[in-house]
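Lab meeting, item 3. Inverse folding demo.
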């Protein structure tokens, strides 16, 4: 059983930065790929980034490439999303996700956190 708790969201001005964290629990975290999705008001949930268990492979939505960086620390059972050069359109609830491999994460993961709000003001 996988449980995940996001933190690090908040209110930031355009151009600012935030670092999201997702702490996972459960033995099933071992070997799992993880990622981040987001859902803006009135919008569908969209893929943001994913990372393989080893951390060697990362994937990003075109909208965040060059601005966001996903990383993980398996010893701490934690995945991070460093968000730089934030834009108002990045405003959304950000969800941590996990599944057996990166393909499964990108396609729509089986395990989800509760979400953390990120609001970017102009």
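The presenter then showed the designed sequence:
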């Amino acid at each position: 059983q996988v449980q995940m708790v996001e933190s690090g969201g908040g209110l930031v001005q355009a151009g600012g930065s935030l670092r999201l964290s997702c702490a996972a629990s459960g033995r099933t975290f071992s070997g799992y790929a993880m990622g981040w999705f987001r859902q803006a008001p009135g919008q569908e949930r969209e893929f943001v980034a994913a990372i393989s268990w080893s951390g060697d492979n990362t994937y990003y939505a075109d909208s965040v490439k060059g601005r966001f960086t996903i990383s993980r620390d398996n010893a701490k059972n934690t995945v991070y999303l460093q968000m730089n050069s934030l834009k108002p359109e990045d405003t959304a609830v950000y969800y941590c996700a996990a599944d057996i491999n990166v393909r499964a994460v990108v396609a729509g993961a089986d395990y989800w956190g509760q979400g953390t709000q990120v609001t970017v003001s102009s």
